[in-house]
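Batch queue: ligand-bound targets. Current item pairs a single chain with magnesium ion. No template structures supplied; prediction is de novo from sequence plus SMILES. Inputs echoed for audit trail.
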Amino acid sequence: MKLLEIKNLMFSYNNHFNLEIEYLYLEKGEFVSIIGPNGSGKTTVLKLLTLLEKKKSGEIILFDKEIENYSKKELFKKISVVPQEFFTSFDFTVEDIISTGRIPYETLFSKDEDIIIKTMKKTNTLKFKERVYNTLSGGEKQRVMLTRALVQNTDILLLDEFVSQIDPGYTQQLVRMVKEESVKNNKSVLSIFHDVNLASLYSDRIYIFKEGKIKYSGKPEEIITEKIMKEIFDIDCIITEHPTKKKPQVIFEY
Ligand SMILES: Nc1ncnc2c1ncn2[C@@H]1O[C@H](COP(=O)(O)OP(=O)(O)OP(=O)(O)O)[C@@H](O)[C@H]1O
Ligand SMILES: [Mg+2]
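Prediction returned. Tokens below.
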């Protein structure tokens, strides 16, 4: 079942960058990644999916309804996001920021303390609950943003380089956690990665963006090839097969 479909989408920033997506979809329970060079339009797609930018033409269908017909509250019961960057000029604590994930569900009597604490334990962020968000390290901030998205408990999780500043141990833990959400809890994940090997290892499908267009899409084994990596990123690499998972892995030639 397709939860999300983008059809014939056109968008531009003052005509200096054009995004053109013929077709992109996300099925229930799928883990899909977007990879592509800097400035290829990956983050812009997530902005369009969260109504931070308005498309020029085309359709974005979420659960059979055009996205522009959703209220913010309705939308954020369906979609949660870990943005590439998150700024706040206020001295919000980690707990304040994570609690905003529950705003779409707020009623006069709701108390969501349990789900918040449980999720903070999972991402090991409980220990800096009282800390001011702005004083955290880059990787700690990303763990907080993932926690906020997880407490939102939506069918679709949008992740924009959510482990880009995270150490190897936490990277494995958090990507596994997100994969588990998708496999066990049937959540759909659309995740932007610069780490092609992570994308290849965990994704059911990958979209490769370049210059505002989808250049390739398919299973990792179909599109992570030496030729395509050269064409898209201009890298000289060797593709090997992951010894146990059998997925393509990129090794830099030197
Ligand atoms: N608000 C904006 N106004 C004008 N141009 C913008 C704006 N936001 C992004 N751009 C430009 O649009 C293009 C696509 O940006 P986008 O953020 O989608 O890239 P990206 O693929 O996410 O790149 P990265 O890998 O560096 O995060 C870039 O050339 C960028 O400079
Ligand atoms: Mg980006």
